[in-house]
Specification:
single chain, hpI Integrase, Chain A, 327 residues, 3 strands
Length: 327
């Protein structure tokens, strides 16, 4: 497609840089979202060439790019949908900013049907094994108090203690891994046992440390890592004192799961799914679970109402026993 007459030339690389700057400054997106956008846009740059005229990108190129993602890159539907959504937002911004005459997405039907998958939860046995392994690695047993946890934190492998804290916090709050590593020390109120989270779309919410032992672990971790943290105020830190990343947390959980003898791959998002499902199965109202997880739509939370076969079988058994008793 030839360049639109009367429009200044801007190459694809420049357009992507300007859009990311807009997302960082005007939209105030999180570092995690900016990284994801950056990865998606780099892939598009490689496909069309960074020096291509952004105003010359047309529907045919977008369709070819869509085919490339599915057929050459063999990406899953969720990954393709994310990459195309990122492009659509960028081109819409370029149109509004009058950098291009019209978005190539205008009246373009690129709906991607996502397969319906149930959330991947941990079984109760897997949760027990993960917790037991995490505790054994640091030498904690019995009732956990802040004093006991602090003593252990100071003498044990720093990453092993981080793994324990990360595991407990994710299981009781249902945080996304990106939200977890974005927590600063100032976001944690240990008196009220509340953590303030900046979630997707810069929406702020609060999550809670519901029991004494989790609160004790968080408090001890905060105290034990203070000297190692140095100038930054990130809550999750590595053994060398740098802020923990999402990949760091994933590796900690993977190592713990392997040591616990769990053969399948355990991810932070599985802990989020597990937290949500357990809360619903224990009677918490779905609107409260929606608020805790930071879902904008209740329909997103509703996927967790699909209870496990074990829970369903047990519930049916209890109901059948009551009916026989009434008879």
């Amino acid at each position: 497609m030839p360049r639109a007459i009367g429009w200044p030339f801007m190459n694809v690389a420049r357009a992507c840089v300007d859009f990311l700057a807009h997302c960082r400054v005007a939209k105030n997106l999180s570092a995690h979202s900016l990284r994801a956008y950056g990865i998606d846009l780099k892939e598009f740059e490689r496909f069309v060439s960074p020096e291509s005229d952004i105003a010359a990108i047309d529907r045919q190129q977008l369709r070819r790019y869509l085919s490339h993602l599915f057929e050459t890159r063999r990406l899953k539907e969720t990954s393709v949908k994310r990459r195309m959504a990122c492009l659509k937002v960028m081109f819409r911004w370029l149109e509004l900013d009058e950098a291009i005459p019209i978005s190539p997405f205008h009246r373009l039907d690129v709906r991607i049907r996502l397969p319906k998958r149930l959330p991947r939860n941990l079984t109760e046995d897997e949760v027990r094994r993960l917790r037991r392994t995490a505790l054994e690695r640091v030498g904690l047993s019995g009732r956990i108090t802040e004093a006991k946890a602090l003593r252990v934190a100071k003498r044990t492998d720093p990453n092993a203690f981080t793994a324990l804290v990360v595991l407990e916090v994710l299981l009781c709050t249902g945080l996304r891994v990106g939200e977890l590593v974005s927590i600063s020390v100032a976001d944690i109120d240990l008196i009220e046992r509340v953590i303030t989270i900046m979630g997707k779309g810069s929406r702020q919410r609060r999550v809670f440390l519901p029991d004494d032992e989790t609160a004790a672990l968080v408090s001890a971790y905060h105290a034990a890592t203070a000297a190692r943290r140095g100038a930054h105020d990130g809550f999750v830190v590595t053994a060398s004192g740098v802020p923990g990343t999402t990949q760091f947390v994933r590796s900690l959980l993977r190592e713990t799961a392997q040591e616990a003898g769990i053969s399948r791959r355990i991810t932070p998002h599985m802990l989020r799914h597990t937290a949500a499902t357990r809360l619903l199965e224990n009677g918490l109202d779905i609107r409260l679970v929606q608020r805790l997880l930071g879902h904008q739509s209740i329909s997103t939370t509703e996927i967790y109402t699909a209870v496990t076969d074990t829970s369903l079988k047990a519930a049916i058994g209890r109901a059948a026993a009551r009916m026989k008793g009434d008879g």
